[in-house]
Amino acid sequence: MKHATLTLIATLALLCGSASAQIKKDAKVYICTxxxxxxxxLKRTCKALESxxxxxxxxxxxxxxxxxxxxxxxCK
Length: 76
Ligand SMILES: [Zn+2]
Known about the structure:
This protein has 76 residues and is an alpha+beta fold. The protein has a domain at 24-76. It is built from three helices and four strands; from the N terminus they run αββαβαβ. It has helices at residues 2-19, 47-50, 61-66; strands spanning 28-32, 39-41, 56-60, 70-71. The chain has a four-stranded mixed beta sheet with strand order 3-1-2-4. The site of zinc ion (ZN) has 6 residues, from loops.
């Protein structure tokens, strides 16, 4: 039983690892400072940024994630 639990944890860790493989904390990403902006972008030319009501800022991916931002659906 204990072995099965450990296997499950190992599998989950592996799955999470592959899911976050694209996260590079020091990579530069773009965010919109508008009130309703909740995501970050890999490209400055992303079409979601065209409708940004605020300012477009370049920050590190790690900082964007800390601010609770998630990857934009167009940039995925
Ligand atoms: Zn985007």
